[in-house]
Write a structure and sequence with these properties.
heterodimer, A: mainly alpha, 13 helices, B: mainly alpha, 72% helix, globular, transmembrane (chain B)
Chain lengths: 269, 287
């Protein structure tokens, strides 16, 4: 009996978190004969139609935005992981002058909030001739304290014997990094990959600042653009928004265990 | 040691260090420099001393934005510091299917803020579900247009921001809860302690480091609110949702007052670091 009550409570709360998405979904697939808004709400589409999905796909260059987001994800996720791993390896496994300084410098980036850095970073990117380019969107996002921190922890835990054995075999550091460290860190790499995918797919502010040409917009910016077009039908906007969140929700559902464990790892440090 | 020379570690760290220099150190120095300049992107920057800071003191919009950001800070506290702790306690039970509930509560976290903002516009619609619930329950006589009402727009945005991130904070607390030895609770239960007592006497004291993390992050998040404002209200109606993040962005990229915007950014930056340090001191003193 107590348990049943618990499930009622858990489900009620779940409805609060999922409800707005369900309302959006319902608006996206309702036939035009059925009002989007009404008292009481009439959320079951009769019958569900894909007209608005089609419309959203053509009102703005949707496929272009999706392709752009795929490009950003494809470039940023592997490069971010590689840059983080390369930096984390010596921090975890080598003794050298300035290692603490480097680690502190990287950690300090967490205290430079993105919003505050927006303007000066935009000016630097402009001076480098990267305003309104893919590179301008990609490069500043490759360094993260989170990635370096998490991989440093992981590398530090790789057993000494394996590394020593590789060294006796005459492996140089790059080979050890590539053939011993990276495979040993596979679960952490997966976590960074998923988090990277989610954050790049959802990225909004930085592309908004860097890009003038809307043909280079990632999908989230495309949705904001669609929302800003006056006269966009509420169903079309709902449909566009639903399409934009499907990939990230699918990835999240498939990988949810890693995501939630990654959170735990990051907090515990 | 084969293959390792003195410069090997630096070579490994080089890409990260280069990015650090170009996209963190250089912009940070640029920000400080620009704060003392007037720069409209078209003509060359001009040194104006403390003018930007003086202007800020007399700029009523800046103070409105500051006040609104502080209201976000206060309004998000129960949503991001308190409620997620209760949620975490709730989903920390051993129940079949509990992972699914955790996942559902976390869903808004992985979705883009833009999508979340759009979804909530449907909830807040004059004939939307929120008005239906509130009028149905007799709490409202007339449906409200939340985002067009100078009084309701800010609470509405606070609700959206809190809803979006609550799952993230829940996971932080959940990580903490899983480090607590369950025998503590069993002992308390044997002694007849109520659920409220167990929360107050065991959970909260042991969770103080995690509460400190949550408070620090909540402050940083609240002071930087931007995307929800950009998509839903553009700072309106009548500056009711003008936040520091939005005002700085608008000064820089709508009015091209780069120097003034940088000066405001610098002030915000100092405030954020101050808040983080204060919080660190206070919580370290307590634990």
């Amino acid at each position: 009996m107590r348990r049943a009550g618990m499930y009622v409570l858990l489900t009620a709360i779940a409805l609060v978190f999922v409800g707005p998405f369900l309302i959006l979904l319902s608006a996206a697939v309702k036939p035009s004969s059925q009002a989007v808004f009404s008292f009481p709400p009439d959320v079951i589409p009769r019958p569900p139609v894909l007209d608005w999905v089609e419309e959203a796909w053509t009102v703005i260059p949707f496929p272009r935005y999706v392709l752009n987001s795929v490009i950003y994800v494809g470039a940023m996720v592997p490069l971010h992981v590689l840059v983080s791993a390369l930096c984390a390896y010596p921090l975890a496994r080598m003794r050298f002058r300035g290692n603490n300084l480097i680690f502190l410098a990287i950690l300090s980036t967490m205290f430079l909030p993105g919003e505050v850095m927006l303007i000066p970073r935009f000016l630097v990117v402009s001076q480098l001739g990267m305003a309104d380019t893919f590179a301008g969107v990609i490069l500043p996002g490759l360094l993260s304290a989170f990635g370096i921190f998490l991989l440093r922890q992981t590398f530090a835990g790789v057993p000494r014997e394996i590394v020593d054995a590789a060294r006796t075999d005459g492996c140089h550091e790059l080979r050890i990094f590539w053939h011993v460290m990276l495979p040993a860190a596979r679960p952490t790499l997966a976590i960074l990959g998923i988090f990277g995918f989610i954050s790049v797919w959802n990225s909004f502010i930085w592309p908004l600042v860097v890009l003038k040409d809307s043909a280079k917009y990632p999908i989230a910016l495309g949705i904001a653009y669609l929302a800003g077009i006056t006269g966009t039908d509420v169903r079309t906007l709902a449909a566009g928004t639903i399409i934009s969140i499907v990939p990230v929700i699918v990835i999240f559902m498939l990988m949810q265990r890693h995501v939630l464990e990654g959170m735990r790892g990051a907090v515990k440090g | 040691m084969p293959g390792q020379r003195w410069y090997t570690p630096y070579l490994f760290a080089l890409p990260a260090l280069a990015l650090f220099g170009v996209f963190f150190v250089w912009p940070a120095l640029t920000a400080i420099q620009l704060s003392f300049m007037e720069y409209d992107v078209v003509s060359p920057p001009e040194f104006v001393g403390l003018d930007n800071f003086v202007k800020m003191m007399g700029d009523s919009k800046f103070w409105t934005a500051t006040l609104n950001s502080v209201l976000f800070l206060i309004g998000l506290f129960p949503l991001l510091v308190v409620a997620p702790l209760l949620l975490a306690v709730l989903v920390n039970q051993r129940l079949p299917g509990i992972r699914t509930f955790r996942m559902l509560y976390y869903l808004p976290v992985v979705t883009s803020m833009v999508a979340v903002a759009v979804a909530w516009e449907y909830v807040f619609h004059q004939q939307g579900v929120l008005n239906w619930i509130l009028t149905g329950a007799g709490l409202l006589d007339q449906p409200i247009q939340y985002l067009l009402d100078p009084f309701w727009a800010l609470p509405a945005l606070i609700l959206v921001e809190g809803w979006k991130s609550m799952g993230f904070y829940m996971m932080i607390y959940l990580a903490g809860l899983q480090t607590i030895d369950s025998s503590l609770y069993e002992a308390a239960r044997v002694d007849g302690a109520s659920a409220w007592h167990r929360l107050r006497r065991i959970t909260v004291p042991l969770m103080i480091p995690y509460i400190a993390v949550a408070i620090t992050m909540e402050m940083l998040d609240a002071m930087q609110v931007f995307t929800s404002v950009y998509v839903m209200t553009k700072g309106g109606p009548q500056d009711a949702t003008l936040t520091l993040g939005y005002y700085i962005w608008s000064a820089a990229f709508e009015h091209y007052e780069m120097g003034y915007a940088s000066a405001m950014g610098l002030v915000l930056w100092v405030v954020l670091i101050g808040m983080a340090m204060l919080n660190y001191r206070v919580t370290r003193g307590r634990s």
